[in-house]
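Sample entry (221 residues):
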Amino acid sequence: MATLGAEGAWAQAQQGATGGIYTCVDKNGRRLTADRPIPECLDREQRELSPSGITRRQIGPSLTEIERAAQEAQRRKEAEERARVVEERRRERVLVARYPDKAAHDVERAAAIQLVDDVTATAEKRMEELKAERKKFDVEMEFYKKDPTKAPMVLRRRIAENDDSMGEQQRFIAGQDQEKRRVHARFDAELAQLRKLWDTQRLPAAATSSSDSTGAAAASR
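Predicted structure, serialized as tokens:
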């Protein structure tokens, strides 16, 4: 039994209205019957019956432009939700395939943290070099302790560049500390999700094992 809606179904019914019987209940509760689609029931469903009284199809109700727009918006919303669920399930399958257990996840976390630590170590090494360089500049500035303005412009420029570089390295190292916290937070969130997925995977296996055990016990009696 096909269900048709809107003006397209109405036009099709009008064109093919030969030998059919149309029936509906109008807004006043009256049951109407005619040999073609009934105008009084444009806003509600009506049925086309065969001469023997069997329902051939259902028509309408015809929708207003606002109703059609609302219906289409609802269809789009439902389609987007279905697509979101499908994509979420796909990501879950990929996640479980990548991390079949906690050990695999721990290895990946350790590797990510090690990468941050390696970058931080490089920055800290550069910081030590800048500090050693600054000590040399300070020794040279001892000659101009009474009047630093007499220090050569080249020396003063190098000291300023050194200060800028050390500030940059300090900010970078602080940023790596934040990055490490972000990495741990990401892996913690993943682990919480994975625990649920692992538990879901184990439930069918446990049920199957229990069923097999019950069957074996019954067979041995």
